[in-house]
Amino acid sequence: MVVTRFAPSPTGYLHIGGLRTALLSYLWARRNGGKFLLRIEDTDKSRNSEEAALAIVEAFKWVGLEHDDAIVYQSARDGVYAKYILQLLDEGKAYKCYMSKDELTELRETQMANKERTRYDGRYRDFDGTPPEGIDPVIRIKAPKTGEIVIDDGIKGRVSFQAEDILDDFIIARGDGSPTYNFVVAIDDALMGVTEVIRGDDHLSNTPKQMVVYRALGFDLPKFYHVPMIHNADGKKLSKRDGATDVMAYKEMGYLPEALLNFLVRLGWSNGDQEIFSLDEMLTLFDPSSINKSASIYNIDKLDWLNAHYIKNSTNTALATLLHESYGVNVHGHDQKEILLDALKERAKNMKELAELIPGIIEAPTEYDEKAVKKAFKDDAIAVLEAFVTKLESAELLHLPTDYHHQMEALVSEMEIGFGKIGMPLRVALLGSMGGPGMDSVMAIIGKDETIARIKKAVETLS
Ligand code: GLU
């Protein structure tokens, strides 16, 4: 069975780059009928892990990902790690190192002066004398001193390190007994039965160390997939300056979860030149071995484009529900809800914009934009509007945008004027400014009586 996991360190929110690796891990597990697990890497106990887990689960819920089994908290597993530390000590695969801080500093300075890589020199590896007093020893693992360490990476292919370039007998438990990062990650992944580790390639240099732990404990290695980072347009690692990093901020900005997931899956993975992927489609197509080898570029315009696509293709009922729940804009009971949302979903880049456009249409303007008035109310604009009122008053069965369109057409032909002569003043009269959807839709949305009332008010105020 394929078992993947997402293993964030608690930061208090789900990072956008984290959601990408979580999504890839989720897709691969689900596609294979496997499991997708969540582990909070909270060995630094000063951070609130409960809160971090809640934030992640909340963001998962928003985008529609679900993890299997109970959340694993590293902070609750000291006993597990202690057991393996003892086992390695018993087996002679790890040892106590009594080096003092001063000795370590001295070693480092000598190595730097000799232009050597700074590393532990193994002086307690085979120590069987009397330990110095007053030192809480750290525990170090016996790592290979020479030879090749090869990662058969699912994305990068064969990645090879020379042990002498990258390893030393690294610490697996500190002087106070607390276990270290690479040690616990390897143990947890093994005990959780993780078969494929899909994570950012900023962790690639940790992998040889984790492999040392796997081997020392006799665990089977998982398959590793190190996913290239997300970069900004300048080729640097994505930071807060380039865009929001908290996933929930994207919700607040009015992005649909479908758009965000589609955006993220395309950051580094492709299927021909296809751009639009529903979650179901991702589930049938995604394969981590076709993730790109090079970094992907974060491009917010692409996300906006996808978001507009998903808004346009959402049902009006879904949009109305979202507008109500997230923005307090209730159009459920509006008798022209369909026309309203049809008109607006063509124009809105995000849900926030959509929500903000609605009151501007269904509520009568309280003022008129000065510039727009100047532009639109030239010549005989007032007379044209008055004639239009007369026309509407005698018209029956005005319901659809096309019904209103016909009325406008009839007027411009009778008065032998261009469309702009009615269009512009009408827009200012109905909406107060030059923006917004087509006039025929606006009139259909607010209805005949309200249309007439708004025109009359404008005529009165602006003539
Ligand atoms: N906790 C690590 C992080 O948040 C991830 C570790 C891993 O995926 O192996 O970067």
Describe the structure.
This protein is mainly alpha-helical and 463 residues long. It folds into four domains: 3-70 and 182-231, HUPs (Rossmann fold); 78-173, Glutamyl-tRNA Synthetase, Domain 3 (Glutamyl-tRNA Synthetase, domain 3, Alpha-Beta Complex); 316-362; 370-462, Arc Repressor Mutant, subunit A. It has 20 helices and twelve strands. The protein has helices spanning 16-31, 49-63, 78-90, 101-113, 163-166, 181-191, 207-217, 247-252, 257-266, 279-285, 300-312, 316-327, 337-345, 351-357, 359-362, 370-376, 381-394, 401-415, 419-431, 439-462; strands at residues 3-6, 35-40, 68-73, 94-97, 138-141, 148-153, 157-162, 171-173, 196-200, 223-227, 230-231, 296-297. Helix 2 (49-63) links the parallel strand 2 (35-40) and strand 3. The relative contact order is 0.09. The chain binds glutamic acid. Glutamic acid binds next to loops.
